[in-house]
């Protein structure tokens, strides 16, 4: 087990506190290590981008544990978030956990998803979306402020994720791979089928590589790996 | 924000994206901070094929680093390796702006964080940007 980066320096009034979904992503990424090692050798110097980094725990995990995850420290990490609070939180979390044996954290950018990034530069994209079905996608001015933006995904909880899926073709490099969390209410099997059959511009190879398992309720989470 | 980041960034306006003048973005009033970190020779050797060299040269020159070769080197000797390490890894941009040469839009960098949000991203309808006049058009 790789240690979860510490976030004890943060308060979670405006930032999504790492929760079950975050930890599922971390556990899944750790299990993906053999795949990541063969896909992204040292000479490829992959760029990993986290969309909606929030507390920064995932970006920090990728940066600090790059030697274990990728087999080398020749990786660069970058994070984006639309919230005014998240980039600073992410920066702090990376700083609090970084070691001399870490990958290279380039920075945290305040932007909408991957807006501002050059096409085709991202080798690994990680996204824990706002996946809860809500009436509208919030803009930070709602009752729940920026936490509402981090959680509420509009229709089927998919409005933000659909924008990311539409942009994958442009964003990912040829060998690029995306890890995206979906919950049962996002209708993940149907989404995966749409990705496979070319509705998102490429006949993507899609595989469910992590799951929180069946529980009494319906909130079952899965991590989906998408690549060319 | 490390300088290497700018090799991966372009203007956020969709209409600029395909325009050659939107890359690289240009630094204005940049305030730098120098850190020190151990030299990682393989990192520098591996980053080289990924770099857009002419964009890096432009960026480096704007920030006062004039010791890079004009052509991308095929092998990294110690001198070039250390220069790249200094520029790409050890230098942070703390304050300043990144400017698109195509549309003139300025992206502020504050406390090391670049802000690439456009008015439309915060739920402001372009129709509300009446004061923006012609500018509003580009944000659609």
TrEMBL record, chain A:
GO cellular component labels: eRF1 methyltransferase complex
Question: PROSITE patterns this protein is in?
Answer: N6_MTASE (PS00092)
A GO molecular-function descriptor: nucleic acid binding
Q: Which domain of life is it from?
A: Eukaryota
Q: Which residues cross the membrane?
A: none
Which GO terms of type biological process are on file?
A: methylation
The cross-references to InterPro entries, in alphabetical order and at most eight, read: DNA_methylase_N6_adenine_CS (IPR002052), Euk-Arch_PrmC-MTase (IPR052190), SAM-dependent_MTases_sf (IPR029063)
- Is Methyltransferase there in the keyword field? yes
For this protein, the record's SUPFAM superfamilies field holds: S-adenosyl-L-methionine-dependent methyltransferases
Q: What are the UniProt keywords, alphabetically? A: Methyltransferase, S-adenosyl-L-methionine, Transferase
The family annotation for this protein states: Belongs to the eukaryotic/archaeal PrmC-related family.
Question: Record's PANTHER family?
Answer: METHYLTRANSFERASE N6AMT1
Would you tell me the protein name for this molecule?
(Perigord truffle) hypothetical protein
UniProtKB/TrEMBL annotation, chain B:
Q: Which GO terms describe its biological process?
A: maturation of LSU-rRNA; maturation of SSU-rRNA; rRNA (guanine-N7)-methylation; tRNA methylation; tRNA wobble uridine modification
InterPro entries per record: Trm112 (IPR039127), Trm112-like (IPR005651)
> From the UniProt record, which GO molecular function terms apply?
protein heterodimerization activity; protein methyltransferase activity; rRNA (guanine) methyltransferase activity; tRNA (guanine(10)-N2)-methyltransferase activity
Q: Which GO terms describe its cellular component?
A: eRF1 methyltransferase complex; tRNA (m2G10) methyltransferase complex
Record's Gene3D superfamilies? Answer: 2.20.25.10
Q: Which family does it belong to?
A: Belongs to the TRM112 family.
Task: State what protein this is by name.
Answer: (Perigord truffle) hypothetical protein
Native source species: Tuber melanosporum (strain Mel28)
| Taxon lineage | Eukaryota, Fungi, Dikarya, Ascomycota, Pezizomycotina
């Amino acid at each position: 087990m790789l240690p979860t980066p510490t976030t004890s320096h943060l308060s979670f009034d405006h930032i999504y506190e790492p929760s079950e979904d975050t930890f599922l992503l971390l556990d899944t990424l750790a299990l993906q290590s053999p795949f990541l090692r063969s896909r992204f050798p040292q000479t490829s110097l992959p760029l990993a981008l986290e969309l909606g980094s929030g507390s920064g725990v995932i970006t920090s995990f990728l940066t600090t544990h790059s030697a274990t995850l990728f087999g080398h420290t020749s990786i660069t990490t970058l994070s984006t978030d639309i919230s005014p609070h998240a980039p600073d939180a992410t920066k702090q979390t990376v700083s609090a956990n970084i070691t001399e044996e870490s990958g290279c954290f380039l920075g945290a950018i305040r932007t909408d998803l991957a807006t501002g990034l050059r096409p085709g530069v991202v080798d690994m994209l990680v996204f824990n979306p706002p996946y809860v079905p809500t009436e509208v996608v919030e803009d930070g001015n709602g009752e729940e402020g920026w936490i509402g933006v981090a959680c509420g995904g509009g229709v089927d909880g998919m409005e933000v994720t659909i924008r990311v899926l539409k942009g994958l073709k442009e964003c990912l490099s040829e060998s690029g791979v995306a890890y995206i969390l979906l919950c049962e209410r996002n209708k993940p099997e149907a989404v995966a089928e749409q990705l496979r059959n070319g509705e998102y511009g490429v006949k993507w190879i899609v595989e469910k590589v992590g799951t929180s398992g069946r529980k009494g309720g319906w909130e079952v989470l899965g991590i989906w790996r998408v690549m060319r | 924000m490390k300088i290497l980041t700018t090799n991966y960034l372009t203007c956020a306006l969709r209409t600029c994206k395909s325009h050659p003048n939107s890359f690289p973005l240009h630094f204005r009033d940049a305030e730098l901070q120098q850190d020190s970190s151990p030299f990682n020779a393989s990192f520098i050797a591996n980053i080289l094929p990924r770099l857009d060299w002419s964009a890096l040269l432009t960026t480096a020159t704007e920030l006062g680093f004039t010791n890079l070769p004009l052509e991308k080197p095929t092998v990294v000797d110690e001198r070039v390796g250390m220069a790249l390490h200094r520029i790409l890894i050890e230098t942070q941009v703390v304050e300043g702006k990144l400017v698109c040469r195509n549309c003139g839009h300025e992206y502020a960098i504050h406390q090391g964080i670049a802000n690439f949000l456009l008015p439309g991203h915060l739920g402001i309808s372009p129709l509300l940007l009446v004061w923006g006049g012609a500018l509003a058009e580009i944000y659609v």
